[in-house]
Amino acid sequence: MAVTLVARHSPVTGTDTTSPTHVSPERSDLSAGEPVPREGGSKPRILLIVNPMATTVSHRLKNLVVYALRGRYHVDAVETESRNHATALTRDAATDSYDLVVAFGGDGTVNEAANGLVSSSTPLAILPGGSTNVVCRLLGIPTDVVDATERLISFGDRLPTRSIDLGRVGDRYFVSSSGVGLDAEITRWVDERPPLKARGGPLTYAYGALTALRREYAGKPARIAVEAGGQHVEGVTAVIQNSDPFTYFGSRPVRVCEDVAIDSGTLSMTVFRRASQRD
């Protein structure tokens, strides 16, 4: 599956309380589109963006993926070197006549790649390389990179596409969810410890949550305030989603905002008024 991103303005107005409420998102559609074979029957050009620091990515695995894809496509492979590098690479790819961009990494890599393709007609495909691969699961892409690569090759130059929504915070888009408060603190703590994340997987996030609670949140007053729908809500964290579930603990879905779909045209927010180790 591949997707293309075209920005369309629709202001975000907010949410209300601890139960999710649908709101109108700053919407970007991942619109239908297919890479077209070049004249003379040459192979479609794809840019493979690889995050070498992603949990399950290795140099050997990257080489195997490139070798397999070159049987069907003309492949240029580039490794990311810093934060937001994938955004710069995909932005350039959108103006450089690539037929397809493939992001090989975790959800952070996918998010960066998507930000560079907003408002372009260049499709984006995903190969899973992270610890959780939430976006892959949401789109029905296999979470095993071998299976996902075989699936991509089988499509050839007739890739099926799907239209989905993106949320926007400031000048950045998010593919599945965005959080402030405790949620953001947990993500920051985990991202600063790549080796621990690689070894511990979902347990690393659980440990990060307990650490943040003990150090920053236990017994302390609410830290954020949300104004939406004529209501004022205070809490310790807010999660905005355009899809369900929020994440996975192993194979188990973790649901925060239910009844929201990645292609429904709405966003949903949940505000947690408090948080404790017992919760």
Explain this structure.
The structure is a single chain. The chain is α+β, with helices and mostly antiparallel strands and 279 residues long. The protein has 2 domains: 127 residues, Rossmann fold, CATH 3.40.50.10330; 96 residues, no CATH class. The protein has 8 helices and 16 strands. The strands form 6 sheets. A 4-stranded antiparallel beta sheet has the order 2-16-13-10. Helix 2 runs parallel beside helix 3, helix 6 crosses helix 8 and helix 7 crosses helix 8. The chain is globular. About 12% of the residues have low confidence. It holds the Pfam family DAGK_cat. This is DAGKc domain-containing protein.
What features would you highlight for this structure?
279 residues; alpha+beta; kinase activity; single chain; Lipid_Phosphate_FormReg; four-stranded parallel sheet; Rossmann fold
